[in-house]
């Protein structure tokens, strides 16, 4: 696992699905997972999108779980034949997979109450790799799961959201990455030189510059990031003072 | 390069930027690139999002360009110190990088006309790896470029769009992936069994099932894909006939 510094917890997200790569479905999960992890003190360091192809899923999963504290996956845990994520995860971990009574019992009760038949396809959704913890799905009951450092979630955004919330209690979290943003009505090409000098003075506070256009006029958002609140405040105050002195703020 | 079958052209997209991974900026480029490539006959097989970190960019780029016909990148080619993509690409290819007169001349003219100073930061945007072709930017002039099988584009969506259009004339395209979609007002758990049988009859026509909810009721979109129009039409017609016979369509 990558040494990410004391108190830093890292993660990757693996999005699984042909439909995202073809453009037919537009991903709505990456931004939500990014926001959630940032808020709880986990740094998302990489995202990959791969097709519904077992060797590709296994290879990506094994690369990512060796490199980061956690890997989250979305997609491919439904009832149809193209839902192969659970089997791919079992293969990546080298463990068997079968219908899990802990998953099946609540699904049975849920379907029975609604008069929905427990087809063999629906039964597939209770297949969980050996040794995994279930991740609750309060929307449609068929659960996600966590095995080792991998958290497997549905692709449908409403279901993914509740699974991510449910999984959060299992997670070790670290220092929160704090950020400060300053908006200027100046194009970034003008402030770039002084901004780079400021970055050099604070090498441990990563600084980014993001151009925007509003009412046809260029502007720049300067973002400073640190897990150290005092250091961040100092770097922000100094930058604001310098921008003010130049008449840019 | 991965053997993808005769007439098949593949691609990956590498999205570069801390701001996407932190959730501060929501990606708007993946879906657009996916749609564009599908429309022109290039199959996007993988997407990665990595931070503004040179070793990470170089490693991802080298992994992807060895595996697919093309790699597209977005982000990190602006004027500020956090824009390190062009240097990372030069490093990945082992070539020098410097201000390129072909890029500089139109930028000079453009800025002069608008009374905008050509700061050292803006000059950075004319730095192009040796051996690259320029990719036109009709919005803000500072170009993207193509080197080997890698196409480097801006992250700002409006600029990325015109660069992608401009790059398209350099690209070899292949058989177009055609698709047929059938919408059913049935949950996917019910149709999964017969759908899997249909997939087995047409192993060369990848079939996916996508659940949705509308007016509180579950539905399913079945998608069939093939580069062979006649085969796709046959598989679609047969599936429709079977769904109709069951009273599901």
CATH superfamily membership of the largest domain in chain A, which one? MoaB/Mog-like domain
Q: What is the number of strand segments of chain A?
A: 11
CATH class of the largest domain in chain A: Alpha Beta
Separation of termini of chain A? 43 Å
Quaternary status of these chains?
Answer: homodimer
Residue ranges of chain A: pLDDT <50 for 5 or more in a row?
none
Structure summarized in a few sentences:
2 copies of one chain form a homodimer. By secondary structure, chain A is an alpha/beta fold.
Describe this structure in words.
2 copies of one chain form a homodimer. The first copy, chain A, has a 6-stranded mixed sheet, sandwiched between helices. A 3-stranded antiparallel sheet of chain A has the order 9-11-10, covered by helices on one side. In chain A, strands 4-5 form a two-stranded antiparallel ribbon. The first copy, chain A, is 39% helix and 25% strand. Chain A contains 9 helices and 11 strands. With 249 residues, chain A is an alpha/beta fold. Chain A folds into 2 domains: 10-170, Molybdenum Cofactor Biosythetic Enzyme, Chain A; 178-245, Alpha-Beta Plaits (2-Layer Sandwich), CATH 3.30.70. In chain A, strand 7 (144-147) and strand 8 form a beta hairpin. Chain A is elongated, with a radius of gyration of 22 Å. In chain A, helix 3 (54-67) packs across helix 4 (85-93). The interface between A and B is large, with 64 and 63 residues. Strand 2 (43-50) of chain A pairs antiparallel with strand 2 of chain B.
